[in-house]
Design brief:
Its EC number is 3.1.3.16. It comes from Paenibacillus allorhizoplanae. The chain has 26 helices and 16 strands. Helix 2 packs antiparallel against helix 3, helix 6 packs across helix 7 and helix 8 packs parallel to helix 10. Strands 7-16-15-12-13 form a 5-stranded antiparallel beta sheet. Strands 8-9-10-11-14 form a 5-stranded antiparallel beta sheet. The chain is of the alpha+beta class.
């Protein structure tokens, strides 16, 4: 309990210090960011609030078909749910706008707003209020007020009923449109991404606002025509011809509904917007020139000379406003339009911020685990000498209380002759420690002269020493467990730190590299849809290309991969290719770093006595970090249980290494897992070779395994290490052996069933070297089969133990297609690696 309380206090202190530091940093960052942006946010909020109030005024004045006004109530209803803080100002603005309308509708508007608010308050009382009900509420309010008005004046006809129904339905549709468009102005969006439907809703909202300016004239210039052409110029510059034509159609349609005399504006604005968008690759002047040409041409065919001159003045006024528009406004609008460079950049900036935040969180967790590991190590570095003296003192006190407490010579021994008695007690304890089976006859004579209860003291000492020894054993177990936890926490911390670096590296901008690859491929006449450069790290290149698939031609391996190798300066190969299932003729191809070396393996084995299950297990797998693992494990004994033990050892070790854990720490963790998973004495040998596919440098981890051999031409090189199998001792020392392999080397790994085949009277290592030298084949599978067959013949067909041999051959990779140089292609500059 004392140890548990100390452990909890230490863990809590570390966790508290780690999390409190993180929380304090977060609070300081949030506070500084809030102070820095408070005034900017206040200014922007006031600016948008003023804009919404002006929009409310114009929508209160707006009418279509000279008698319907469905805009104001829909706008006020959406403002109620999105910006309730300015609802009264918007309502006043809409009321003021209705007073200046051509046909007075102020009474209807005020009544509709009152009815809407009453129904909404009733729903809020019963907790049924939701923005999704806004269209229904607007429809109901408009329909009921208009119907009541017609009934009061006794003027209800089928035509008036149809018109009030149309107005109510228009209010419903406009409410749905405003729900998607108004959030752009209320700062409720956290990212700059609008769908095409939302863009159309925004255009409808702006065109509806323009209808509020119908009838306003500045000399010969009509205000709504100037604003509509100005809007077209903005969207044509930002989104090109499709957006320019779309804005022209929508704006012209709504303006023609507000003013039937301006029906020709729809075709004029659509054509002008398309022509302006086609010239967006130039600059503002070219976009303005396109709009001027389009409007003048259609005005020449559709109207008189006076109309043509007025249209030209309106276009010039719109161009003047367009040229005076700040660049920041255009960039802000471009962020919302899908497909623009600004929109893509804003999304990538947002993704980069998310990655940076995630990487920061992972680094913080890594630091917490590192502090925990440091804390556990501090708990296990206490002074061993002082601890042992303390334990000895407890031991002596326990013996004194049980053996000397009732003795009549206690005061004489411990008060008058304390040092003499303590010395004899210590000598007796030392003798019991060296010989636990000490009998009464073996008690030293000098001790009997000092103590009159030697036999009783001996029995108590033997009993207490047994307890003392057991206590020392469990304390050592606890210390070993702390060391293990500290090592594993350090490993987890390192893995998380590597993960944070990987997340940061993914956030690098690779636009220039993608554009360079695209230009090079398009110069060859290849149809490339998209290019995504995921990583350009040396030895870890990953590029994903979607291109037009041509059946019968392997452009990827023959053209694209060699060209990428020349551009990047590193051998690139096709990792995988996937045809799109939708039948559009596209396929996705992933290119990655081609390994400098290739590994070919072969395996042969047999179970003891010809049984079905062998206690040996093997694994040949690429770990994904440029390393290839060839592993062999021999479980204790034979049969299914030994096989399960060896398979478990290999599986756990492989997963630990794939996660990025250090090799020595992975072996120690595996050893701890095998010790804890079973109370029986189950252990397994591990023989693993980690081959670097780029340099052929190989690290051997031999844990209780037999030697391995490297055949290089006619020379055979043995590889051995002195390590116990995993699962026996709680603490093991791991010796790693690193040897650079060469192209053509053959690596032979085997279990003890093959290595011990010649028997004890023969030098096994020399016998096995001669056996490997005599095998002529270089194919790994034939080599393994031949070696196993010779072992069978040596034992006359008898299988005395589980036997498994794994053979791997390392070869320098030869690219299937050579790289080529294309005129004008330059070597790519790789981004700096994030440290």
């Amino acid at each position: 309990m004392v140890f548990e309380n100390m452990q909890r206090r230490s863990l809590g202190a570390v966790m508290g210090s780690g999390w409190s530091g993180i929380w304090q940093k977060a609070k300081v960052g949030v506070h500084s960011a809030a102070v820095e942006n408070r005034w900017v946010q206040a200014f922007v909020a006031k600016k948008w609030s003023l804009l919404l109030i002006v929009m409310g005024f114009l929508l209160g004045r707006a009418m279509i078909l000279e008698q319907l006004s469905p805009f104001a109530l829909a706008f006020v209803a959406v403002i109620y749910f999105t910006r309730k803080d300015i609802l009264h100002w918007v309502g006043i603005a809409a009321f003021a706008g209705s007073l200046l309308a051509v046909n007075g509708n102020t009474g209807y508007l005020v009544t509709e707003i009152v009815i809407f608010l009453l129904i909404q308050k009733a729903l809020e009382k019963y907790e049924r209020s939701d923005v999704s009900l806004a269209p229904i509420l607007v429809f109901s309010s408009t329909f009921l007020v208009q119907l009541f008005a017609e009934l009061v004046v006794s003027n209800l006809t089928w035509y008036s009923l149809m018109m009030l129904t149309v107005e109510a339905l228009l209010s419903l549709v406009l409410t749905l449109i405003f729900i998607q468009a108004i959030p752009v102005f209320t700062l409720t969006r956290k990212n700059y991404h609008l769908k095409h439907e939302e863009i159309i809703c925004l255009i409808i909202l702006l065109a509806s606002v323009m209808t509020g300016t119908v009838g306003w004239l500045v000399g010969p210039v009509t205000v709504e025509h100037v604003l509509s052409r100005y809007l077209i110029l903005l969207f044509a510059l930002v989104g090109g011809a499709p957006f320019g034509a779309s804005v022209g159609v929508v704006t012209g349609l709504i303006l023609s509904l507000a003013n039937s005399n301006a029906i020709y504006q729809m075709s004029l604005l659509a054509f002008s917007g398309m022509l302006a968008g086609l010239l967006k690759e130039g600059n503002r002047l070219m976009v303005a020139f396109g709009m001027l040409i389009g409007s003048v041409i259609l005005s020449f065919y559709m109207g008189s000379s006076v109309d043509m001159i007025n249209s030209a003045w309106e276009s010039l006024a719109a161009v003047a406003l367009f040229l005076l528009t700040p660049r920041s406004v255009i960039l802000m609008l471009a962020k919302y339009v899908p497909g623009t460079q600004e929109n893509l950049k804003s999304q990538q900036d947002y993704a980069k911020r998310v990655r940076d935040v995630t990487a920061g969180r992972v680094e913080q967790f890594s630091e917490v685990f590192r502090q925990l590991a440091r804390s556990f190590k501090q708990l296990t570095t206490e002074d061993e000498v002082s601890r042992k003296e303390e334990d000895v003192g407890h031991f002596m006190n326990a013996v004194t209380q049980k053996a000397c407490e009732s003795c009549w010579k206690k005061s004489q021994c411990w008060d008058q002759k304390f040092y003499q008695t303590y010395t004899y007690m210590t000598d007796m304890m030392s003798q019991i420690e060296t010989k636990e089976s000490m009998t009464k006859k073996q008690i030293p004579p000098e001790w009997k002269k000092v103590c009159i209860r030697t036999e009783q003291v001996l029995d108590v000492m033997k009993q207490q020493y047994s307890l003392y020894k057991n206590d020392r054993h469990w304390k050592k177990q606890i210390i070993d467990s702390r060391h293990l936890v500290a090592d594993q926490l350090s490993g987890v911390s390192q893995v998380m730190e590597d993960l944070a670096k990987e997340i940061k590296r993914e956030g690098q901008e690779l636009f220039l590299q993608e554009e360079q690859i695209r230009n090079a491929l398009e110069e060859l006449g290849l149809s490339i849809h998209t290019i995504d450069v995921i990583s350009l790290d040396e030895g870890n290149i990953e590029i994903e290309i979607i291109h037009q698939y041509t059946k019968g031609f392997d452009e990827c391996r023959k053209i694209i991969a060699p060209l990428l190798s020349e551009i990047i300066g590193e051998n690139v190969a096709v990792m995988r290719e996937e045809m799109h299932t939708r039948g559009e003729g596209y396929s996705t191809v992933v290119f990655g770093s081609a390994k400098e070396y290739e590994v070919e393996t072969g395996v042969a084995g047999a179970a003891k006595g010809g049984d079905l299950f062998s206690g040996d297990s093997y694994s040949t797998v690429e770990l994904g970090n440029g390393k290839y693992a060839v592993a062999l494990s021999d479980g204790m004994g034979n049969g299914e249980r030994a096989r399960a033990e060896s398979e478990t050892a290999l599986s756990i070790l492989q997963q630990l290494l794939q996660s990025g854990m250090d090799e020595k720490l992975a072996i120690k963790s595996l050893n701890s897992v095998l010790m804890l998973r079973s109370s029986d004495e189950m252990y397994a040998t591990v023989d693993m070779a980690l081959i670097d596919m780029y340099s052929a440098n190989t690290t051997f981890m031999k844990i209780g395994s037999t030697p391995s051999f490297i055949k290089r031409g006619t020379e055979v090189i043995p590889i051995s290490a002195n390590n116990l199998p995993v699962g026996i001792l709680s603490e093991i020392d791991v010796d790693l052996v690193s040897i650079p392999l060469q192209s053509g080397d053959i690596l032979v790994m085997m279990t003890d069933g093959i290595f011990d085949a010649p028997g004890h009277a023969v030098n096994k290592e020399m016998w096995m070297k001669r056996m490997i030298q005599e095998i002529d084949t270089t194919l790994p599978q034939d080599f393994a089969d031949c070696l196993l067959e010779r072992i069978f013949r040596h034992h006359h067909g008898e299988i005395q133990d589980d036997m498994t041999v794994v053979v791997a051959r390392i070869e320098k990779r030869q690219p299937e297609w050579a790289t080529f140089r294309w005129p004008g292609i330059t070597r790519m500059e790789r981004p700096k690696t994030v440290s």
